[in-house]
Amino acid sequence: MARGVRFLVDDAGRRTAVQIDLKSQARLWEDFYDRVLAEQRASEPREPLETVKKRVLGRRRRRRRG
Length: 66
Description:
Strand order of the largest sheet: 1-2
Oligomer: single chain
Largest sheet: 2 strands, antiparallel
Shape: elongated
Number of helices: 2
Helix content: 40-55%
């Protein structure tokens, strides 16, 4: 088992929860949290990458001129 990770078990010995030491396992927590956010946002509308690039680069060009 990884350092900084502990499982809580019920009376039957089944894992029911996990405790993560955020100082020693920051990357593990970030990966877990990113996955949860991705699942929550899976049903949100998508925007094509090219559209985003045009919008972002268009703003950057306007700022340079101004």
